[in-house]
Every structure is written in structure tokens, then in C-alpha cells.
Amino acid sequence: MTTLLRGLPVAEAMNNETKARAEVMIGQGILPTLAIVRVGQKADDISYEKNASKRCQSLGIGVQNVVFEESIDPDTFFRAMGDIAQNPAVHGILLLRPLPGQLDGEKARCMIPQDKDVDGCTDASLTGVFTGNGQGFAPCTAQAAMEILRFYGMPVSGKRAVVVGRSLVVGRPLAMMLMHENATVTICHTRTQNLAQVIREADLVVAACGQMESIGAESLRQGQAVIDVGISWNSKKQKLCGDIRQEEAEGLVDALTPVPGGVGSVTTAVLCRHVVEAAERMHV
Fold first, then answer.
1. Torsion on CA atoms 174, 177, 183, 185, rounded to nearest 10
2. Reported confidence tier of residue 236, pLDDT bands at 50, 70, 90
3. Given this chain, do its domains 30-114 and 140-265 carry the same CATH topology?
4. Model confidence at 230, in pLDDT bands (50, 70, 90)?
5. What would be the CATH architecture of the domain defined by 140-265?
6. Per the confidence metrics, is the pTM higher than 0.85?
7. What is the pLDDT of residue 173?
8. Which sequence spans correspond to the domains of the chain?
9. How far is the C-alpha of 284 from the C-alpha of 267, rounded, in Å?
10. Which fold has domain 30-114?
11. Please, where are the H alpha helices in the chain?
């Protein structure tokens, strides 16, 4: 029997705590505020911005939606980014990426101050994740995976964990976060030999490779907990799918995050908590 590690109860618990903390800040005359920076009209960006804005506002968090035309010139954009970074009324900055070709994405990313980098995308924030020094914030999706494990009491310490995917958004930072919890971690990628065998040896599997339904029964076994971070639209099946073939995993592994309804539903809750925490740190 596979236990489904649903994200909604995790997000609800986090949101309740975040709202209470936001109310304390508001009572002190401080409105925790997130600036969402979007360039262009990409449907995915607009959807994420809308959902994040709605969730923030429901928890008492202010939102500044900063939208630029896709053709914006670099000088204008980077001046605006500098103004947002220096604005004391803004406690968190979410930069929707990738940016159009005329804009240096690395430069834009690095303009976000560490104390306002609520999505953990800057080098300073990632350094905090890798060293475990407690500074900055982890990437929201990686943190969401950790929140699910904690909420459901899934053991991490001493366990063998395999993270499939080595991006700086999820794979590598999440591997470090698991190591800080005393897991023994292997990071796998497209060049990993005997990938299915490596995954089968793990107690905890994190699928974050971005390859739709690429991992199935040949890689899984009883006794495993599986965190599926992937999210893709399967046009053939007309549904959202993860990196795990869920129908093969259910009934085989011990625990599994569903797609949809798993990690993705917790990510925005993490973002909101980071904004309030950033405000708290700035006004100690």
C-alpha cells in the first residue's frame, strides 16, 4: 500500500503559520511585500505570477507586480532592477526567468540582494545552502520537497538518497539540504551509468530531471519513499505528469508524492513564508 504524500495539508499548515506571522508584522506597521518581476507575456510566467500574487494577498502579504515589455532595453531594465533592490518597502524579489535574449540573466539574478532573494537564486543564497550557514533562503521547490518529508515524518538521517537531476534550482541544492539532515546522497544525471540500479538501491528517491515519466517500475522497489518534482504536460494523456510513471510506482513504493498535488502545491507556500521571514529579519 503506497502512502500518497499530498502537498495540500503541508501547504495549509505552512500558510496558517505564515498568515499569523504576517499579522504580527502588520500590527507593527510593517507590510511584508513581494515584488514579482516579469518580462514579456509568457503564459507560464503569467500563470505563476497570478497564483503567487493571489496566495500572498490571501495571507496578508503585499505584492508589487512589475511588468516590462519583452522588447525592453537593458539600460531601462537594469535601472529598474536596481530601484527594486534598494526599495526598503520591498522585502522579497521574485524574478521570473528565463529573460529575453537582450537581457543578461546572470546580471539580473545577481542584482537581487541576498536578504531579498526569497527564491534562492543568487550565488550568495546558494552558498548559504551549500555551507549550511543559515544565511539567505533555499530555492523554493527544493525547500518544498524538504517540507513534505518533515510534515509526513519521513526519515532522512542515515538513509541512502538518490537525487536524479543536478540543476541549481532543485537537484544540487536539495542534495545539500538532505546531506545537512545526515542522509547519504548520490546525485545522478544523464551520464550516470546503470541509473535504474542506482535508484533501486536508494531508500529515498527524488526525481528532478525534468524528463516526463522517465522513471518507472524498473527503477523502484518496496520500502522506498519517492519525491516527484517533475511537472510536464502530457498532450497524449491530456494531463500533468511528473518524472515518475505514477501508475507503476503506486502499489510498489511505500510513499509517493502525486503529480499534480504534490511538491508544486507546496512551493508557493514556501515562497510566502520566505517573504514574511525576510521582513522579520529586516526589522529585528
1. 40
2. confident
3. yes
4. very high
5. 3-Layer(aba) Sandwich (3.40)
6. yes
7. 98
8. 30-114, 140-265
9. 26
10. Rossmann fold (3.40.50)
11. 7-27, 43-58, 74-86, 105-110, 123-131, 140-151, 171-180, 195-200, 246-249, 264-282
